[in-house]
Design goal:
Layout (H helix, E strand, L loop, with lengths): L2 H8 L3 E3 L17 E6 L5 E7 L2 E8 L3 E6 L9 E9 L11 E3 L4 E6 L3
């Protein structure tokens, strides 16, 4: 699979809202915001949140598994634009998702295609 195909499929991330409209513009520490990684590759992936020039490691998504990782609330301010990076352990390509709008309490879905 080419890098372009990996980026295209990884960018097919969606946000599943978990509740009604939110009145607050800051993240509520009680609301759990997560990213569900559907890793269809045989390689384990380290999943990072990209904030400016920083990479914040969220955890590892095992190969051929679904993993739910928590997004730290300090990176959510109302509706936040976030990007995610999947760094394969033992691989050389690091696909990055498109920018995704996320609010506190949402669950982001990332799909990593088979390699």
């Amino acid at each position: 699979m080419t890098r372009r195909e990996c980026l295209t499929l990884l960018a097919a991330a969606g946000v599943i809202a978990c509740g009604g409209p939110k009145a607050s513009t800051t993240a509520d520490p009680e609301q759990r915001t997560t990213v569900r990684v559907d890793n269809r590759s045989y390689l384990d992936m380290n999943i990072f949140l990209l904030v400016g020039s920083q990479r914040i490691r969220l955890g590892t998504a095992g190969g051929n598994k679904q993993t739910v990782l928590r997004i730290p609330p300090q990176y959510l301010f109302g509706i936040s634009s976030l990007q995610f990076m999947a760094d394969p352990i033992g691989g050389s390509r690091t696909p990055v998702s498109d920018t995704i709008s996320v609010s506190a309490g949402d669950q982001v879905q990332l799909i990593i295609p088979p390699t």
